[in-house]
Amino acid sequence: MTPAETRGASTPAAEAPTGPRSVTLDRPPDTRPDPPAPADPTDGVAPAARRRWRWRWTRRRIDLVVYGGFLLAAIWVTSGIWADPAGRVAALYSSDPAQVQFFLAHSVRVVLHGEFPFFTEQFNYPDGVNLMANTAILALGIPMVPVTLLFGPAVSFVTLVTLGLAGTAAAWYRVLSRHLVRHRPAAAVGAWFCGFSPAMLSHANWHPNIISQFLLPFIVWRVLVLTRSTRPVRDGALLALLVTAQAFINEEILLFTALALGVFLLAVLVQQRARWAAAWRPLGTGLAVCALLAGALLAYPLWVQFAGPMAYHGLSDTVRDYGNDIAAFFAPGSPTFGGNERANVNLAPNYSEENAFFGWSLSLLAVGIVVWLRRDVVVRALAATGLFFAVLSLGERISWWDRDLVTGPWELLVRLPLLDAVVPTRFGLITGVTVAVLLAYAVRSAWVLRGVDRRTARTLTAAGLVFALLPIAPMPLRVTTRPPVPEFITADRWRQYVGPDQTLVSVPVPAMGNTDPMRWAASTDLDFKIPGGYFLAPRNGVTGDPGRFGGRPSGIGDLLEEVASTGRTPKLDDRQRRRFLDELRHWNAAVVVLPLNEQNAEPLRRTVEQLVGPGRQELDVWLWDVRTLTSRSA
């Protein structure tokens, strides 16, 4: 049941479609070039050969221009970070980039030192972190190892964001132009929205694993190929390789792709049940082969993820309730031309999760496209798929401008296996892709519409696209500066103190709201261990518990975090000192480090001195050598 077969069209390939109802996804409209000029009689190349060469070169040139445009747009979006990758980060929230940089440094250790790829003790020591349960982006980090080694993880991070945006758009253009709509202008429009939608721009601030969707269009295409495949075993094996690679980029996006394809094919089947008779056998065979091969390749990593050390089952209640407000679909995204951060407050869980935000103009245009092309089976299936996941993205409580209305259908699904680890607002990403394909479909239909002058039709199409897409045109990501890695770290002075099984304890202790020490460790290729950090782990440190952000609760961590935020120095008694020293022993701490430029550095210094005695200044940090206090014999 490819998009081609859902149409059931029988017009010859050379015949231009006569209206919306006859538009197909698998066959190009009348896009033949104008006849070339007569060949020069003195030219030794035959006219027919010259025509073929010119046509091939023209198509290739168009593709290169489109790909180049996507890359330039991605560089434009990330230009603020490119100006100083190590010193700038997306504004409003900065924890995820540090985590990703840590994972990139872990990939270096995997390649150069043969370190176990799915688990690490380099942070949250000594409990460690289950990396398979934390999206360690191995499929992105390992290819980026040369860049990370030469330029550092901060450059690798912004490179991944740039290539994620451009690569996703380029991949969708390739599949749309070659296999689905087969019309370059239409494919370029659809691919642009796939790569640079407000949701993609929102995640570009922090989540390269989510915006790196360049494998998804090929997965979609290969599943559609299976519905009419004559070699389902081979095609199923190809699909398995794509699925395996995507699993090491982001499993949640892979799950979304599978769900979206299932709903789309079901929507087609409901309309054309006769198609199932021809499609079920190759589709079933191919999917079975895919499941067996991908299952074999992913069996051990998935065992580590779900049953290995520090594995968790389900997300925290706070994240599970992340949903879109209905009004979010009609407001432009914050990182867009017409976006307004203040206006978008409470329409999304936070600025990194603006997974809808199409704006009024595009929302109206999408509805208009569905009404115009409503006779088409594929359009109806796309509309049903997009609407279904838009409703799920509203979360457990459906709201309008931050006012709860009714309980949403997600309430019935949130506790199912696999779905209990999904962030519901991200279902809006699926709706975004369906809108993109509808845009491509509409452009292709308008481009060849009979009864209308071609130039007029194309002018009106361009005007409609400007009306819909200009308010949500991408703008450079807002950035802010972040503290540099201390010279004490970059000059390797820490190596005089910290041994292989010891930790460097920063002040404040690494946590979700203090990820700078993760950047310190990443800058050394994780040559030293740190306690705490920003990650997902079982709530009580026991495999199988529900997930939470961060490791086990830390008394000293909570104390120093409070001092850092309030600037008040507490008075500690002997009981508190003994308790906090026990934590330092548990972490096998070698040194405690406080940067001189840390917020409320003086109250923090006085607090630490109550715990472990006077410190000394070394380069740009306050330093406490605690090895005599935390040694096993102390």
TrEMBL record:
Keyword Transcription on entry: no
Transmembrane annotation, as ranges: 64-83, 150-173, 185-204, 255-271, 283-303, 357-374, 381-401, 421-443
Record region (Disordered): 1-46
Superkingdom, natural source: Bacteria
Domain DUF6311: 115-410
Keywords of the record: Membrane, Transmembrane, Transmembrane helix
Record-linked Pfam families: DUF6311 (PF19830)
Keyword Transmembrane: yes
The protein, known as: DUF6311 domain-containing protein
Originating species: Micromonospora maritima
High-level lineage: Bacteria, Bacillati, Actinomycetota, Actinomycetes, Micromonosporales
